[in-house]
């Protein structure tokens, strides 16, 4: 287990509700995970399972009518000196518009999104965006900020960074715009980068180039990354650890090798069966996960995955909510691995060691 100083972010028992006309949507229903310093954590799961809301919470930007109803997010800030002191910052205790939160956002934790066009203002040049990000957080002259901006564009391997600095977003290709977003995000040297489906909107070749660039930048800077994706292929390529989400819960946490070679949760196993494998014949049909993610305003009783689960145990999975069970290399919320007494069929609350 990593010690606190190896951890850059801890999310504990996070519950987020959206109060809507049709009822309460439990977007996050007790999310727990940690991100290790210098490592890449992949958050995977189907659409609607709560990946983006988790990212919004970390930046303290949950959109209305969403509300964090309970839980904690702790950011472990490491000081710049040689002593490497770590300061605990409870993000969930900060006001979203407080000075301290604004300092963390962008300066310590930065984010890149799926569709760069929605984050880039078409009326402003690439340079305007970069200057805004740089001067918001760093006390530098205009000339110095411009130099840093151009340097940031060169760092993401954009050709002719001077020309791109003065271009408008619509003059660039999708891949170039995503590189610009990465340059903006990295211009303040964040310790943690959250990337929410950053390559989904791009063609396959550009996707691969952006992933390669992100892997290179991660290695060069040593920053931690939370990589949000529904694509397990991307996880295999980019991540050290994986958190698999289903209906607002993390159902399996593990290292990337175990996720692929020894997945424990039937949902993780089903996600894996739904990705193409090179060794398989091109006419092999991919398995689809039966059913769809239920509406989070009416979460099934017991294990939320039970209506779709091939391992469903009647009278158990539809009744008992699986607690987190600690196995050798993974933590899993599935009653196949414990969490109830087989003699009485009653829940056993404690986390079990196996
Ligand atoms: N502004 C909102 N109003 C109401 N419900 C919302 C809002 N934003 C998110 N939700 C709900 O919260 C749940 C989690 O959504 P979230 O966007 O985090 O899922 P996701 O896993 O990121 O999906 P995707 O891969 O499609 O982005 C969903 O049920 C969604 O409908």
Structure description:
This protein is of the alpha/beta class and 354 residues long. It is 29% helix and 25% strand. It has an 8-stranded mixed beta sheet with strand order 6-7-8-3-9-10-12-11, with helices on both faces. A 4-stranded antiparallel beta sheet has the order 2-1-4-5, with helices on one face. Strand 13 and strand 14 (346-347) form a beta hairpin. Helix 4 (126-137) packs across helix 5, helix 5 packs across helix 7 (174-186) and helix 7 runs parallel beside helix 8. It starts with 6 loop residues before the first strand and ends in a 7-residue tail after the last strand. The chain binds adenosine-5'-triphosphate. Adenosine-5'-triphosphate (ATP) is lined by residues 18, 20, 25, 27, 45, 47-53, 63, 66, 230, 296.
Throw out a few tags for this protein.
354 residues, alpha/beta
Kindly report the spatial arrangement of strands forming the biggest sheet.
Answer: 6-7-8-3-9-10-12-11
Main beta-sheet annotation: 8 strands, mixed
Number of helices: 11
Beta-strand fraction estimate: 15-25%
Shape label? globular
Average pLDDT, all residues: 88
Q: Radius of gyration from the CA trace?
A: 21 Å
Which spans of ≥5 residues are poorly predicted at pLDDT below 50? none
The number of E-state strands comes to 14
| String of helices and strands | EEEHEEHEHHHHHEHEHEEHHEEEE
């Amino acid at each position: 287990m990593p010690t606190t100083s190896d951890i850059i972010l801890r999310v504990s028992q996070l519950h987020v509700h959206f109060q809507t006309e049709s009822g309460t949507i439990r977007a996050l229903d007790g999310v727990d995970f940690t991100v290790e310093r210098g490592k890449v954590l992949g958050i995977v799961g189907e659409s609607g399972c709560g990946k983006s809301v988790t990212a919004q919470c970390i930046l303290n930007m949950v959109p209305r009518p969403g509300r964090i109803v309970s839980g904690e997010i702790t950011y472990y800030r490491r000081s710049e000196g040689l002593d490497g002191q770590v300061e605990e910052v409870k993000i969930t205790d900060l006001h979203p518009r407080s000075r301290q939160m604004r300092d963390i956002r962008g300066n310590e934790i930065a984010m890149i999104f799926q569709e760069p066009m929605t984050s880039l203002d078409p009326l402003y040049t690439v340079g305007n965006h970069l200057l805004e990000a740089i001067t918001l957080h760093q006390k530098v002259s205009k000339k110095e900020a411009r130099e840093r901006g151009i340097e940031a564009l060169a760092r993401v391997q954009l050709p002719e960074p001077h020309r791109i600095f003065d271009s408008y977003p619509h003059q660039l290709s999708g891949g170039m715009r995503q590189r610009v977003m990465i340059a903006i995000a990295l211009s303040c040297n964040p310790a943690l980068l959250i990337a929410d489906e950053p390559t989904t909107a791009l063609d396959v070749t550009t996707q691969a180039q952006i992933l390669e660039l992100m892997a290179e930048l991660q290695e060069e800077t040593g920053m931690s990354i939370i990589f949000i994706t529904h694509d397990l292929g991307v996880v295999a390529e980019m991540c050290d650890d994986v958190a698999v989400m289903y209906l607002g819960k993390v159902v399996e946490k593990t290292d990337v090798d175990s996720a692929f070679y020894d997945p424990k949760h039937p949902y993780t196993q089903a996600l894996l069966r739904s990705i193409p494998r090179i060794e398989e014949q091109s006419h092999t049909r991919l398995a689809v996960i039966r059913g769809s993610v239920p509406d989070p305003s009416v979460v099934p009783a017991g294990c939320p995955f039970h209506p779709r689960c091939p391992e469903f145990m009647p009278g158990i999975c539809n009744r008992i909510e699986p607690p987190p069970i600690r196995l050798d290399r993974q933590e899993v919320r599935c009653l196949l691995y414990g969490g109830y007494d087989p003699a009485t069929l009653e829940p056993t609350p404690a986390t079990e060691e196996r």
